[in-house]
Structures are given as C-alpha cells and as structure tokens.
Amino acid sequence: MGEFELIRHYFAAASCAQGGEGVALGIGDDCALLSVPPGEQLAISTDTLVAGVHFPAVCDPFLLGQRSLAVAASDLAAMGATPIGFTLALTLPEVRADWLQAYACGLNQMAESCQLSLIGGDTTRGPLSLTMTVFGRVPGGQALTRSGARAGDLLCVGGELGNAAGALPLVLGERVADAAQAEPLLAHYWSPQPQLALGQALRGKATAALDISDGLLADCGHIAKASDVALQVELERLPLSAALQAVLGHDDAQQAALAGGDDYVLAFTLPEAELASLLAAGWPIHVVGRVGAGSGVRLLDGGGQDITPQTRGYQHFKETP
Amino acid sequence: MGEFELIRHYFAAASCAQGGEGVALGIGDDCALLSVPPGEQLAISTDTLVAGVHFPAVCDPFLLGQRSLAVAASDLAAMGATPIGFTLALTLPEVRADWLQAYACGLNQMAESCQLSLIGGDTTRGPLSLTMTVFGRVPGGQALTRSGARAGDLLCVGGELGNAAGALPLVLGERVADAAQAEPLLAHYWSPQPQLALGQALRGKATAALDISDGLLADCGHIAKASDVALQVELERLPLSAALQAVLGHDDAQQAALAGGDDYVLAFTLPEAELASLLAAGWPIHVVGRVGAGSGVRLLDGGGQDITPQTRGYQHFKETP
C-alpha cells in the first residue's frame, strides 16, 4: 500500500471532516490547496511529538491520536483562529493495521471535534514520531499575538490548571489513584480540548494570548517578554480541580498549576472593561493576576509577598556547554 | 536556550530570507500568519526525512540542510506555486552547536535560492529526523495537479534523470568514482535544485505535473491514475547525463532513469502545441513519451516494443500480511 493509500485508507474520516470549508484540494497531489477568504490571514503552527519524549513509547494509540492533534490545534486557539485543516507527518517503525486503525480513530474524533480536515501528509519508516501542522484563518490584524499586553490589564486563564501535570505520574505508572480522581486528570492529559471557541471570542478583546504548554509561569514569561511588561501571578487565585487536589494535595496541586506543562488552557491579558461581558456570556475565565510596568514574571502569595520560584517550566533543550 | 531562541539563533538568515513577501508574522508566536493575495490559493506540502532511511545517519549537516529543504520545495515546483515560506520541525538526539551551525548554513543557502522564508518550527529531542512544511501561492485554478493529462499530450521531463540514483552507491560508500564523474552526481543528490521557475512557466500550459521522487515509471503511474489515461515512456528518449553513463554504464543508467528515486525533476504532460514556445524560451524540456487512452504506464523500446518491467520504484511501506 503506497503512502497516499495508507493515509486515505485509515484517515478517510479525518480527510473529510467538517473543516472542509476552505480546502480546495486535499490529499493525493504534490500539494494541498487552501482558499483564504479576502481580508483574512492564514495561521500556521507545527508541533512534533516523539515517543519516549512527549508520550510514553507504549501507550494507547487511540488516545495518542486524540492528544497529538489537540496539542497542535491548541496553537490555533491561542491565535483566535478558525480551524481549517492539518497535515500529518507520521513516522512509524512498522505498519501495524491495529495500531493505525486505533490511532486514526482517535485522530478522526479530535479532527471532527475541532473541525479540522486532514489535507495532506507523509508516512515514513523510522522511530515513532508525529509532526502535525495546523491551519486556521483569522480576520486580518485580529490574531491574538503575545505582544499586546498593557500595564493595567488583567491576567486570565481559560480553565483549571495543573490537571495534565497531575496526570503524568499516573500515565507513567509512578502513582495510583482511585478511578474517580484519576479519570478527569487522565482525560485532560490524553484528550485536552483546544479552546478554539474561547480564542475566537477573545478576538478584539484580549490584548495578548497563548496556550499554556510549558507551565503558567514559563508561558507568562513569553507574554511578558514579547509585550515588554511585567506579569504578576497571584498564587491563591489559581483555579485547581478537586481531582488534582485529591491526588496531589493542595500545595503540590499549586505547584502543578504553576510549573506543570501540557495544560493547553489559554492564558491571556484582558482590559478590565472587557471582563464582565465575557463572564456574562458564560466563558470559563479566571483572573489569576495582573499586568504591570517592568519586565519578567512575579509570583505573589495571598498577602502580596513576592515568592517567585527559580524553576521556570520545561524546556526541551538546554544549551550544551 | 529555548526552542525559539535555538531557531532564531541558528536559522536567523533563513527566517529573513527574501521570501518574506506574504509573511505577516514569522517565528516566535503560537502561529505564523500568512497573507495570501486575493484570487490566489495557498499550496502546502509536508515531507519528512529520517536518518538511516532517507539519508545516511552520518552525513555532512550542511548538505543535509540543503537537501532537506530542496526535497520539500520541489513539491511547490510541481504545483507551479510561487514560494512563500516553510516551517521546520527538527528532532535531534542532542544539541551540538557545530552540527546546527552547519545544518542551518546549508538550509539558509537553499532557502535563499528558493526564496523561501522560515516562518516557524519546533525543536524536540529524539532520533534525528526533519519535517518540512512548505507554502507557496498560485493563482486560483492554475495549480498544476496530476489529474489533467489528456490523450495526445506529450510526456515531458525538465532535465536529466537518474543522477541521484547514480549518486546513491557513492553516498553510501559502496562504489568509488573519479571526482570528475562523481561530483555532478553527488551535487544532484545533496542539493537538488527544485524547478520552481519551470513550474511557474508551465502554469496554463501543462495539463498535469509532479516532481519525480519515486522514479519516473512509478511517478508516471500517479499521473496515469489521477488523470485516467495511459502513459507511454520511450526508453531511448530518456535524457541521461554523461557522468551517470560513465559511472553506471549505459544500461544501468537507463535503469536509474526509469526507477531511481530522488530526481526532483518535473515530469509533466503538455499539449503538443505548447512545446515550441517553451523550448524557444530556453526551458530544459525533454519529450520522453506520450499520453494515450487507457490506463497504466508502458515502457517502449526504440522499436516501439512493450518492455514494461515489473518493478515500480520505491515505496516506504509495504502492507503487512
């Protein structure tokens, strides 16, 4: 079976997912073709997941299918983009029909839920890894970048933090927990829900945004740097799930919320005047701090004391000496 | 050094390559943003190269930098697209400054020559592999697909065939040759020149096109299938370089031209009336056969006898039983 046939056979559902609007030519030629409506821009992001680095080498391929697309789609949410499609570069040590079927099933389900259509790809033999490139569209000049935060804005997040970090010891088999506590955390790890609708709702309102992948403090550092402002995070305002606190305890749950990766929840800065209407519309927005003049990220305790830790989330590489 | 800093540091030249036109936002945010002129479509292709599968695990990183981008850009040529930019997903076992510097240097050089700007990427730790996603633009409806060939068209290629296949035993150290013979073949393997200008010149003229990556016969099979026609390839008309014939001998050189991969020369079908003006304009076009009614690909010898072989080029995967 050739590579196109392989993709066509297993990923047929994703290649005709509802995202099809804007896809002028899909899988099967040298390139896919997208049509972008006049006045809109195309948003593009690439993410690679490597077995043994970003997910356990032995894992459920259905869950991996969900997670691999969700992680990439979350970058579209962070820009306020409307999803169009994605390409999949799949490197596999061997072709196993059962693995591919389950992986494709998870992927197809997430593609449908995100309204992303599979428009192209490449399959190669090698150590298991996946590279997704996602495409969305956004009205010209309305994309949510990291660089527009202004002193006085509120710092907000789009949901509970730390759940994926809390799940990691369960994923790795280093800890066990009651099913009732474990399940919501594991669900968050394996099938994070990209906040695409929230991202679109924040267009023209949020001044800066990103999705939390390296941990709240580290990612706030990206906004602070790009916007040339200081961010203050208030420890006591971090939204923590009951499941996370039950599994980790309150203090470790706060740590997970601050420094744990893989949340894929939006963090954004918002002029105070915009908050009420968004909350009234039912968006799950939590204020966790504020933007000030200066630079860097500070963590404040309930009394306003600076308790900024030194650790700053996960980086894939440290420079060699 | 964070991933953005890593990319910014080593790949700075590529990220401000001349392709910048159309890039509204480059590296450093959650997504890149592209502007597509009204009436044009965006062409997209993804290619993965894995160490030990698509190139020797130990090789010159400068040459790999050139080759990895050229292979991807060739898909833009095959669609007749004008280059805009590319993303790079780079998976590395370790960060070695000398390796990255040399790789980036080769990549930057090819990016400049193709007028492609690096707009985003991802760096991860893992077994060495590279996924490039390339972007170009093409006037609506004018992309060169594989599906428009019509009976009576000429079958043409954009240059000499088989040089990369002839280089492979030299690359792998399985054969030695005089430098004068080896160099043109090795140059073709390591830095194929995507036929971007030819692809654009064929817009509105060629009825079907692709770039030869799996070998002429196998790739002609893709056009025949997509266009629902038969293709006849005439063995004696294949353009062979002097270097290839000197290294392999005439018969093996023909085999390399028929079934060798990695040529990245365009193959296309052309109404006979279009040929003269393209040749007069100096395009390196060789007629190697003709389109007929029916299906599949046939190879004809000098006397018009059918000598179609059974082998059909390289496929990354065979289906498991």
Explain what you see.
The structure is a homodimer of 321-residue chains. Chain A is α+β, with helices and mostly antiparallel strands. Chain A has two domains: 137 residues, 60s Ribosomal Protein L30, Chain: A (2-Layer Sandwich); 147 residues, PurM-like C-terminal domain (Phosphoribosyl-aminoimidazole Synthetase, Chain A, domain 2, Alpha-Beta Complex), CATH 3.90.650. The first copy, chain A, is 35% helix and 24% strand. In chain A, the strands form three sheets. Chain A has a six-stranded mixed β-sheet with strand order 8-10-7-11-9-12. A four-stranded mixed β-sheet of chain A has the order 3-6-4-5. A two-stranded antiparallel sheet of chain A has the order 1-2. In chain A, strand 1 and strand 2 form a beta hairpin. In chain A, helix 3 packs parallel to helix 4 and helix 5 crosses helix 10. The longest helix of chain A is centred in the N-terminal third of the chain and has 19 residues. The radius of gyration of chain A is 20 Å and the shape is globular. The C terminus of chain A is likely disordered.
Shape of chain A: globular
Oligomer: homodimer
- CATH homologous superfamily classification of the largest domain in chain A: PurM-like C-terminal domain
Low-confidence stretches of chain A: 312-321
Largest interface: pair, residues per side = A-B, 74 and 74 residues
Q: What would the CATH topology of the largest domain in chain A be?
A: Phosphoribosyl-aminoimidazole Synthetase, Chain A, domain 2
Helices of chain A, by number, come to 11
Strand content of chain A: 15-25%
Structural class designation of chain A: alpha+beta
**Cα-atom radius of gyration of chain A:** 20 Å
Name of the CATH class of the largest domain in chain A: Alpha Beta
- Note the gap between the termini of chain A: 46 Å
In CATH, the architecture of the largest domain in chain A is Alpha-Beta Complex
| SS elements, strand count of chain A | 12
Overall tally of structural domains of chain A: 2
What is the topology, as strand order, of the major beta sheet of chain A? 8-10-7-11-9-12
Summarize the main sheet of chain A: 6 strands, mixed
Binding site for Mg(2+) 3 (chains A, B): 30, 75, 211
Function (chains A, B): Catalyzes the ATP-dependent phosphorylation of thiamine-monophosphate (TMP) to form thiamine-pyrophosphate (TPP), the active form of vitamin B1.
Family (chains A, B): Belongs to the thiamine-monophosphate kinase family.
Pfam families (chains A, B): AIRS, AIRS_C
